[in-house]
């Protein structure tokens, strides 16, 4: 009898969790969402940066990944022992995938079906299918963090050592490593130029002041760009290459000749940066604000209040 009551109680708990609903995001609605890790919330904005909805979640996530259907949202975190799966259109949790604690990054691969998950505690990359089943696990370097894909190669930046691991996606094996700077984070892959740009935090009291540009063919360091302090995010659009340094709250613009042509101060402890149309969006982690900037003039056009601790952005066109 006690066992029956326990099972009924457990079933009620599960039903209660699954019955929690959030404002629905219609499938044809374009949005930009901030992943706010201090108050574990999501803030949804439309393409005009008007407020759409807030999701207040009691999950210790640190990131999210939108799948190819444009509706399924995965939430993951270093302290979570599962990956929580939500439907935006239904406004609720629809599944939970098995995982080990330590996941700090996830990426949908170019085939639109495979999902790579970086586990910093286990020093590996797991490959999930769309149903949440683990198909492969590959050991990489210490404290892996960033992932970039170039056709059949997956580049893994290992924050805990001076090594970048290159996984062959056909064989699902590490085919080579090359030496990079310590504590690297923030990366840009330029396929046509056969380059990978890496930022970083620095080691101990020595803060990183440069972005390092490596050859993806040879692993050779080609050049450095001085963009102090702690360049931790790099992206490219039609207006140029942009480097965000959160130690100095600075945004740098780099031209095709690898010259810093413009810089400005933005945000308070900014971490995340993305591009929408001709705008650059920067999230201020300590100010709880989203800064909308013109990518040509690099002037702030608009400042938007979001949840506490915006750490990542997710967009759907």
Span of the ends, CA to CA: 53 Å
CATH architecture of the domain at 67-179: 7 Propeller
Summed over residues and divided by their number, the pLDDT gives a mean of 94
The name of the CATH topology of the domain at 67-179 is Methylamine Dehydrogenase, Chain H
Kindly estimate the percentage of residues that lie in beta strands according to DSSP: over 45%
User: What's the overall geometry?
Assistant: globular
- Number of extended strands: 30
Low-confidence stretches: 1-17
The percent range for helix content is under 10%
Number of helices: 1
Spatial arrangement of strands, main beta sheet: 3-2-1-30
The CATH superfamily of the domain at 67-179 is YVTN repeat-like/Quinoprotein amine dehydrogenase
CATH class of the domain at 67-179: Mainly Beta
């Amino acid at each position: 009898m006690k066992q029956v009551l326990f099972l009924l109680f457990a079933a009620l708990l599960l039903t209660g969790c699954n019955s929690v609903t959030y404002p629905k995001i219609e499938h044809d609605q374009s949005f930009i969402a901030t992943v706010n890790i201090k108050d574990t919330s999501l803030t949804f904005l439309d393409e005009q940066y008007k407020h759409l909805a807030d999701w207040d979640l009691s999950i210790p996530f640190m990131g999210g990944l939108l799948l190819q259907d444009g509706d399924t949202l995965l939430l993951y975190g270093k302290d979570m022992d599962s990956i929580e799966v939500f439907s935006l259109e239904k406004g609720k949790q629809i599944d939970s995938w098995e995982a080990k604690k330590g996941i700090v990054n996830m990426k949908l691969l170019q085939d639109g079906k495979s999902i790579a998950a970086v586990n910093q505690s286990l020093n590996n990359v797991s490959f999930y299918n769309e149903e949440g089943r683990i198909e492969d696990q590959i050991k990489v370097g210490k404290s892996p963090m960033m992932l970039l894909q170039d056709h059949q190669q997956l580049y893994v930046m290992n924050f805990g050592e001076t090594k970048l691991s290159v996984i062959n996606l056909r064989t699902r094996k590490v085919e080579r490593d090359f030496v990079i700077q310590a504590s690297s984070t923030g990366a840009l892959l330029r396929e046509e130029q056969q380059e990978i740009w890496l930022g970083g935090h620095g080691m101990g009291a020595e803060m990183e002041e440069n972005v390092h540009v490596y050859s993806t063919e040879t692993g050779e360091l080609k050049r450095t760009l001085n963009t102090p302090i702690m360049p931790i995010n790099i992206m490219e659009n039609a207006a140029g290459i942009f480097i965000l340094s959160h130690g100095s709250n600075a945004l740098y613009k780099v031209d095709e000749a690898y010259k810093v042509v413009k810089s400005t101060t933005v945000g308070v402890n900014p971490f995340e940066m993305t591009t929408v149309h001709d705008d650059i969006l920067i999230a201020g982690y300590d100010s709880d604000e989203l800064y909308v900037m013109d990518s040509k003039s690099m002037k702030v056009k608009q400042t938007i209040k979001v949840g506490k601790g915006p750490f990542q952005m997710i967009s759907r066109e």
